[in-house]
Amino acid sequence: MKRKLVYVIASLTLFITASCKGQTESTSQTEEAVYTYKRGDPNGIGKWYMGRQIAHVMGFQGINWLERSEREEEENTATLLKNMNIQPTDVIADIGAGSGYHVFKMAPIASRGTVYAVDIQDEMVQTIVDRKAAGEIANVEAILSTAKDVRLPENSIDKILMVDVYHEFEFPMEMVASMKKALKPNGKIFLIEYRGEDPDVPIKEVHKMTKAQAVKEMKVAGFKLEEKIDNLPWQHCMVFVKELL
């Protein structure tokens, strides 16, 4: 009996190990099919997606730059928020929210809704938590995401905002897939990126995106460009919705 039990345990261990190995290999093969690795711009991570090199994430040490006094003049955030047509009951997610620059401007407008502030860095999330507490702002929720999952409730979001952050996603395919699950059927993604077509925009090339590249990547993820609003000084304002099957 003892020998039989040892045999069963050994067989089960072998099965679990093989299953885990198979899942890991499958995940690895999927990533290899989607992403490539090679040298490029030193400001990138050496990982490429659909011909575009992924940029390094701006660390929490850049909070002062996010909150710089000239940002409104350079990016015209007030106009961006008008473009979003935020309603009082909207549920909005700011992905890569950073220090909450846009979050705390949207919260009073979506006064009866919720603004999720999503970021991958603990320090950024803590900054938002502290600002929320200091301002006694009830309708802001901070979420620590992963590199592959925004960790938002499924079918709950009216509008997703990404400002100069998508190009830094280490796993863009997986991140957008998680956003798609979180969006309501008629939800919208507002993708804001520095214009890669414009050499006069004073931003490093790997931190810019062209409209064509953005449309190509979002199409693969099941989104179509509904509207492109050309009223920001340096950035594209591209509005994406789910493709109808």
Give an overview in words.
There is one protein chain. This protein is α/β, with parallel strands linked by helices and 245 residues long. It folds into 2 domains: 2-37; 58-242, Rossmann fold (3-Layer(aba) Sandwich). 36% of the residues lie in helices and 26% in strands. It has helices at residues 2-34, 63-66, 71-75, 77-84, 103-106, 122-135, 172-182, 211-220; strands at 35-37, 44-49, 52-55, 91-95, 114-119, 140-144, 157-163, 183-194, 223-229, 235-242. The strands form 2 sheets. The chain has a 7-stranded mixed sheet, sandwiched between helices. Helix 7 (172-182) links the parallel strand 7 and strand 8. The protein is globular. The termini are far apart.
Q: What's the arrangement of secondary structure elements?
A:
Layout: H1 2-34, E1 35-37, E2 44-49, E3 52-55, H2 63-66, H3 71-75, H4 77-84, E4 91-95, H5 103-106, E5 114-119, H6 122-135, E6 140-144, E7 157-163, H7 172-182, E8 183-194, H8 211-220, E9 223-229, E10 235-242
Parallel strand pairs: 4-5, 4-7, 5-6, 7-8
Antiparallel strand pairs: 1-2, 2-3, 8-10, 9-10
